[in-house]
């Protein structure tokens, strides 16, 4: 019996090595690019590719419920600068590439409507600098600009300005029927501060 022990040990070692190789190969084959989620292509609920100068961006959400996965990737001249995956509650309304502060570095702006009856709008944004990136967000609505606000935002970029619009609710308005008109808020991003700031708002 003792003469067969080396052979048995060798066979066990070969089986262990083969199993490890199969496991590694399976993990590699299951990897998928941004444009093809590992679960199903049908699970992609938002997808957009954008470019500005030497920069290109891909934005995608996966999932169809209130909980979704936001993925984005940034490249310059075909070389990846950064990529991120984050969980969000809500849906992506739109994604834009801008240069609000008129420098050499673009901003990726992803506009999100939170889950719920109000669909409150917010920004997931980044400015891509020569070294790294800087997160961007909208300042909190307060004062007269926040009066009658119950969500349902829309966003657009016009030149070096970010425009936000939403319906104005009077105290007795149901969620489905705002009657106070529309408020438009204008944001800019001064080069020195590097922050998005509100510069004016107007009701119509």
UniProtKB/TrEMBL annotation:
Gene3D superfamilies: Periplasmic lysozyme inhibitor of I-type lysozyme. Keywords: Signal. InterPro entries: PliI_sf. Residues 1-20 form the signal peptide. This is Uncharacterized protein.
């Amino acid at each position: 019996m003792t003469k067969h022990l080396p052979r048995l040990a060798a066979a066990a070692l070969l089986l262990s090595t083969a199993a490890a190789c199969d496991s590694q190969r399976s993990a590699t084959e299951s990897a998928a690019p941004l444009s093809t989620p590992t679960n199903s292509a049908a699970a992609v609920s938002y997808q957009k590719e954008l470019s500005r100068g030497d920069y290109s961006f891909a934005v995608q959400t996966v999932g169809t419920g209130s909980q979704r996965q936001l993925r984005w990737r940034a490249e310059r001249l075909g070389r990846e600068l950064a990529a991120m995956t984050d969980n969000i509650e809500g849906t992506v309304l739109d994604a834009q590439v801008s240069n609000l502060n008129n420098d050499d570095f673009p901003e990726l702006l992803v506009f999100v409507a939170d889950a719920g009856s109000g669909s409150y709008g917010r920004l997931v944004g980044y400015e891509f600098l020569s070294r790294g990136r800087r997160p961007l967000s909208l300042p909190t609505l307060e004062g007269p600009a926040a009066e009658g606000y119950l969500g349902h935002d829309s966003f657009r970029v016009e030149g070096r300005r970010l425009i936000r619009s939403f319906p104005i609710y009077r105290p007795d308005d149901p969620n489905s029927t705002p009657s106070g008109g529309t408020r438009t808020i204008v944001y800019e991003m001064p080069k020195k501060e590097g922050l998005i700031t509100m510069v004016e708002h107007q009701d119509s």
